[in-house]
Design brief:
heterodimer; A: 470 residues; mainly alpha; 2 domains; 18 helices; B: 326 residues; alpha/beta; Rossmann fold; 5-stranded parallel sheet; 52% helix; disordered C terminus
Chain lengths: 470, 326
């Protein structure tokens, strides 16, 4: 059930209407049933896997919290991590490692092995709910979080449908208390939810899906391979993935708000970032903070000297890259992030010390450099394989103008100017949706105008969100 | 005096507190819902009333749909219903065909671009159910379309599928539940079904050069655009079409479009095995590239010859060679 499909909007309307007629316990039962229905709508075969994984962590967390035996606690904790990462690794990386292994053997001349033993299908949302379960079990083990004593509550924390398939990855300390306590109907909050859903539809159907046409054409080689097709491809993909994922996140947060929940903000105008570290404070915030808290800091963070810090940054970003998918392109994408974060840390820790231009210019120069680094890394993120990425980048050495580039660039500029204006307004006024702080008539009017633009120019092909594949 | 004046003075007015009036969000949620409902209903109304008039493609399809439903058997005149996709749209010059059959037959054309076998199998079912009763159904699709299990999507749901058939269509086309639900909505909403057409129309009128350049994108490298191969065809699909028409006492003929490769032979074999009539006005590889617009669709000169020969073959109807089946 895609968020931008009419059937999801109907589903949401029915659930929300029933939801506010029930008391808290019944609300949770309804939401758990609705969430399992939502997941089963994607692929009912994997519903049992998710329920098994949820039930196991629920039980282990209770025992970990209740047992005084430190060794048993540790054993159960490790068991949970092994099972969670084992399931994720099997479904997500089995094919990748088998293919890489057989390819390596082929280089050595051993070709008699089958190319792939099994074709494993990736269960929807597994990367997201696994990270949420791991965060929960780690917090319970570290005594930062009381375990849920009701399976309904814990099951809902893991599977609440707005975040189930592609996040935002919710922290136990943030969402679990909301699940366990009574939600109050706050009309302002609900109104904000409606606006977030409309804003998300605009980002997805107008910005992302329109940019997708040109991004796909450029990365499929239909625009040729030269510096202009590279610029068009990277720029189009940068806005496609941003509109797609930020749009999804807005719709997820908006849907949750209709039921009185609050999800953490997942995007905060990332292309206004002045350095890569700032970018990661604005892009997929729920993942970057998860990686920081459950990987980078446990590895030692920046507390163990410069060399170790760079190593930790690299490890975190490489694993962050691999989290996105079982492909060397994601590993390189993560590696590039890690390298540039280290370079920033080494050379530009204090930008004010860099002489020359005024602060304003420095700010803009920093933004442009950051965008270039992000753009370069998007080539690896988008390309189907390393060969395609290298072919795309090799185009930089060829300057060959075609008339259709001008129309494509003009079209992209027109589409993305809406995104830039939207983000500029949100950045300047610290709003979550446009005109949030003005009288409701203003955001409602804006939403209607944006809806009209979506209707006339939105692709609305119900194309799957990019992050659903992760 | 002063005191009296003083006493007669009204006490100073209290300085009003600045009260922040919280907007009535419940009312605004209600307003939003009402606005949204009106908005959606208006869209549907505008699409049905205005878009189907201002868009050439939409008005043609709507008119052809009505014409297809209006086909009824008439003594002395053979009623032919020509169905298919862009191949007959560009390959058959309808006025020329009508002229060549004047007094003998009447041809009603109902073609929708990007439609394939499943669209038309269920489309014919719906046309018959809604009252269309020609003497002959002439379906023009090629081997690729006959093999394909794709459908045009919600647009077909609006014009070609019956509500009761949608689950069968979805199963045959291997659609997921979201897309299946979309078909149900598309069955009743022209706006939803035709949203891609509306977008293309808007794009053509605002940024024509961009729309043109997207249309002219070269095909993906390594992929033949029309997949023309000589793999044997499963005749069951032709049998199903023939049986469907026969159950309404209507003849069915497969009109094979010209092309390159060896697919005509496979179509003929499948037709023979399924006892289906075929019409081949132009043989494979007979036309040269200059008679095609894009190597696939005929251009004006190709269409003229194709139509001429088609008209000549149809003039002999009902003596078009019939292969009697069980």
């Amino acid at each position: 059930m895609l968020f931008d499909s009419p059937v999801y909007l109907l589903f949401l309307l029915i659930v929300v209407t029933l939801y506010w007629k029930l008391n808290r316990n019944k609300q949770n039962v309804l939401l758990l049933a609705a969430s399992y229905f939502f997941y089963g709508w994607w692929d009912w075969r994997f519903l049992l896997l998710m329920i098994f994984s949820t039930a196991l962590d629920y039980k282990l967390a209770v025992v970990i919290a209740d047992t005084p035996n430190a060794r048993l606690r540790k054993l159960l904790f490790i068991t949970s991590l092994v099972v969670n990462f084992g399931i994720l690794g099997f479904f997500k990386y089995f094919n990748f490692f088998v293919d890489s292994f057989t390819s390596s053997l082929a280089i050595l001349g051993i070709t008699s092995l089958p190319k792939s033993v099994l074709a494993i299908i990736l269960p929807p949302g597994i990367s997201f709910y696994t990270f949420q379960e791991v965060a929960y079990i780690v917090d319970v083990y570290n005594k930062k979080q009381e375990p849920a004593r009701s399976f309904i509550d814990y099951g809902l924390f893991i599977s609440l449908f707005p975040h189930l398939i592609a996040g935002p990855i919710q922290r136990p300390s943030h969402l679990l208390p909301q699940v366990q306590n009574t939600r109050r109907f706050d009309p302002e909050h609900v109104f904000g939810g409606v606006m977030l859903i409309l804003s998300g539809l605009f980002r997805k159907c107008f910005i992302a899906d329109n940019c997708a046409t040109l991004a796909n054409a450029a990365f499929n080689g239909q625009l040729g391979h030269n510096v202009f097709s590279l610029i068009i491809g990277v720029y189009a993909f940068a806005w496609q993935i941003y509109g797609d994922f930020a749009g999804y996140s807005d719709m997820a947060r908006g849907s949750a708000q209709l039921m009185g929940f609050h999800f953490m903000v997942n995007f905060r105008q990332p292309y206004f970032a002045s350095n890569l570290q700032d970018f990661w404070h604005r892009w997929h915030i729920s993942l970057s903070t998860w990686l920081r808290d459950y990987l980078y800091i446990p590895l030692g963070g920046n507390r163990k000297g410069n060399l170790r810090t760079y190593g930790n940054l690299m490890t975190t970003m490489l694993l962050g890259g691999l989290w996105h998918g079982a492909n060397w392109t994601f590993v390189i994408w993560g590696g590039l992030q890690g390298v540039w974060l280290s370079v920033e840390r080494l050379l530009f820790r204090d930008p004010s010390r860099i002489g020359g231009a005024s602060q304003v210019y420095k700010g803009w120069i920093a933004r442009v450099i950051t965008l270039l680094v992000i753009g370069l890394s998007w080539v690896f993120f988008r390309a189907a394989n390393l060969h395609d990425a290298v072919t795309m980048l090799a185009g930089i050495s060829t300057v060959e103008w075609r008339p259709e580039y001008a129309t494509s660039m003009g079209y992209l500029a027109a589409i993305t100017s809406f995104g830039l204006l939207l983000d500029w307004r949100l950045e300047q006024h610290d709003e979550e949706y446009i005109f949030e702080k003005l009288h409701p008539a203003v955001p409602l009017g804006a939403a209607l105008v944006l809806s009209l633009i979506v209707i006339l120019f939105g692709a609305m092909e119900n194309s799957a969100f990019i992050y659903f594949q992760f | 005096m002063l005191s009296s004046i003083s006493s007669s003075e009204k006490p100073p007015l209290p300085i009003p507190e600045v009260v922040h009036i919280r907007p009535n969000y419940v009312a605004w949620i209600r307003n939003s819902a009402i606005c949204l409902l009106i908005f959606c209903l208006s869209l549907e109304a505008v699409t049905r009333l205005a878009f189907s008039r201002i868009s050439h493609i939409e008005s043609r399809i709507a008119a052809e749909y009505r014409a297809a439903l209006a086909v009824h058997r008439t003594p002395g005149i053979t009623q032919i219903l020509l169905l298919g996709n862009s191949l007959p749209l560009e390959g058959v010059a309808l006025p020329q065909l009508q002229e060549s059959l004047k007094g003998r037959a009447h041809v009603a054309r109902f073609v929708i671009e990007n439609t394939e076998y499943l669209d038309w199998y269920y489309g014919i079912r719906r046309l018959f159910a809604e009252g269309s009763s020609p003497d002959l159904v002439l379906l023009c699709i090629d081997a690729t379309h006959l093999k394909s299990s794709k459908i045009r999507g919600e647009y077909s749901a609006f014009y070609l599928f019956q509500t009761a058939d949608i689950l069968q269509v979805a199963k045959a086309a291997d659609l997921d539940l979201t897309k299946t639900a979309g078909l149900f909505l598309g069955r009743y909403s022209l706006f939803y079904a035709g949203r891609t057409g509306i977008r293309n129309f808007a794009l053509n009128h605002t940024d024509e050069r961009y729309a043109e350049s997207v249309r002219n994108l070269p095909p993906l490298t390594g992929k033949e655009q029309p997949e023309m191969n000589a793999e044997p065809l499963d005749e069951s699909r032709l049998t199903a079409l023939r049986t469907l028409c026969r159950s309404h006492n209507i003849d069915f003929t497969l009109l094979i479009p010209p092309g390159f490769g060896k697919s005509q032979a496979t179509l003929e074999q499948a037709a023979e095995a399924s006892h289906t009539n075929v019409l081949i006005p132009v043989h494979e590889n007979e036309f040269v590239r200059t008679q095609y617009r894009d190597g696939y669709h005929l251009n004006g000169s190709g269409a003229k010859i194709f139509t001429e020969r088609l008209g000549a073959r149809l003039q002999t109807y009902p003596k078009v060679p019939k292969q009697q089946g069980p």
